[in-house]
């Protein structure tokens, strides 16, 4: 016996959509961090409780949200980042789908407090259908997410131990922080500070997060073809300590897991890697936003290049060349 077709209630639609973006606390955190960065923040504070299940609070010093737009921030498919198809095709912000906050709000208790620089005080909103209340905040935005999945117990069962979820949260911070060296980060876990990153140069940030050894054991990658640029560090084939794979790829500042890029980088290491060493890299690809499609999956960790062959070749040669620099070569010979 079939039931009649009927439209789903709004909350349920958001809860279904949340399944795609809100996999675990770390995915909430990723969305909140991206929003803070899109707002032009220079310093972020992240507070976590119970691995981010009980609380994720992101405090930023970005541009803020005007009072009358607060409900829209929690509304599905509402965004300040794109307005039409052309914008979508050349989107340069980390977000653009206008659904993250609505999704998070559907599966947790979310509070949004924000103050535009010109506003006399901040406003606070807890429900898209509710009224904003005056609040105290110097400038910027505080997004507070509590009790993840409190209303969707089936999903809550999939959460791992707090320590595991906290580790995933920290990894989410790391991914965002690696590509935003000019932004300061402070992370606390259950009231204790666990990470503090000062604003600085990309190389310093890499050293802070991947270890000073990664910096000294790596060669610099830097190739510029105008429309395409790749920079970063790649482990020398003869690195003393290189048995653990460290692989971070960014496209226009966005952490991605891209098979094509991974393949190109891996190929560059082929036949020159010593012993049990693993190819490791932290590379940043900058490309005309119109030449890459980031709208492949709601989590946006996948991309599609318009000219994937050209990107593959460019990245491969850039790394191959970096690995063949005199220093890397000398090291290869010394080790042989
Ligand atoms: P998206 O980032 O795809 O636009 P979100 O649901 O993540 O969608 O956010 C909705 C809107 O809320 C954003 O377009 C932005 O205008 C606003 N917003 C969210 N977080 C912040 C923040 N930290 N600072 C300023 N504006 C924000
Ligand atoms: Mg967003």
Shape: globular
Taking pLDDT < 50 over at least 5 consecutive residues as the criterion, the unreliable ranges are none
Strand order of the largest sheet: 5-4-3-6-2-1-7-8
- List the bound ligands: adenosine-5'-diphosphate, magnesium ion
The average pLDDT value, as a whole number, equals 93
The share of residues in extended strands comes to: 15-25%
User: Which percent bin holds the helix content?
Assistant: 25-40%
Alpha-carbon Rg, integer: 22 Å
Work out the helix count: 12
What structural category arises from helix and sheet content?
alpha+beta
CA distance, first residue to last residue: 73 Å
The counted number of beta strands is: 15
Outline the biggest β-sheet: 8 strands, mixed
Order of helices and strands: HHEEHHHEEEEHHEEHHEEEEHEEEHH
What does this protein structure show overall?
This protein is of the alpha+beta class and 336 residues long. It is 34% helix and 24% strand. The protein is built from twelve helices and 15 strands. An eight-stranded mixed β-sheet has the order 5-4-3-6-2-1-7-8, with helices on one face. A five-stranded mixed β-sheet has the order 9-10-13-11-12, sandwiched between helices. Strand 3 and strand 4 form a beta hairpin. The protein is globular, with a radius of gyration of 22 Å. The model has no long low-confidence stretch (mean pLDDT 93). Bound molecules: adenosine-5'-diphosphate and magnesium ion. The site of adenosine-5'-diphosphate (ADP) has 22 residues, from helix 2 and helix 5.
């Amino acid at each position: 016996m079939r039931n009649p077709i009927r439209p789903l209630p709004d909350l349920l639609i958001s809860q279904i959509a949340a399944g795609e973006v809100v996999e675990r606390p770390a995915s909430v955190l990723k969305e909140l961090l991206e929003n803070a960065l899109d707002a032009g923040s220079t310093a972020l504070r992240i507070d976590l409780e119970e691995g981010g299940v009980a609380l994720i609070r992101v405090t930023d010093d970005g541009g803020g949200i005007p009072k009358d737009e607060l409900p829209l921030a929690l509304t599905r498919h509402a965004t300040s980042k794109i307005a039409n198809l052309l914008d979508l095709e050349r989107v340069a912000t980390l977000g653009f789908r206008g659904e993250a906050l609505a999704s998070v709000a559907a599966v947790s208790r979310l509070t949004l407090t924000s103050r535009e620089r010109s506003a006399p005080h901040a406003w606070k909103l807890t429900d898209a259908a509710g009224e904003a209340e005056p609040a105290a905040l110097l400038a910027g935005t505080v997004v507070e997410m509590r009790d993840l999945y409190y209303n969707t117990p089936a999903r809550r069962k999939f959460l791992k131990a707090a320590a595991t979820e906290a580790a995933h949260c920290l990894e989410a911070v790391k991914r965002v922080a690696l590509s935003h060296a000019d932004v300061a980060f402070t992370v606390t876990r259950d009231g204790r500070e666990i990470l503090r990153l000062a604003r600085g140069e990309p190389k310093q940030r890499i050293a802070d997060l991947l270890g000073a050894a990664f910096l000294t054991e790596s060669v610099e990658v830097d190739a510029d073809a105008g429309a395409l640029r790749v920079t970063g560090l790649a482990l020398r084939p003869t690195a003393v300590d290189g048995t653990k794979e460290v692989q971070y790829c960014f496209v226009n500042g966005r952490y991605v897991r891209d098979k094509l890029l991974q393949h190109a980088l891996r190929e560059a290491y082929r036949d020159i890697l010593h012993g049990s060493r693993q190819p490791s890299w932290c590379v940043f690809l900058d490309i005309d936003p119109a030449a890459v499609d980031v709208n492949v999956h709601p989590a946006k960790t996948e991309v599609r290049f318009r000219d994937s062959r050209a990107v593959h070749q460019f990245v491969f040669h850039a790394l191959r060349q970096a690995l063949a620099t005199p220093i890397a070569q000398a090291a290869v010979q010394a080790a042989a």
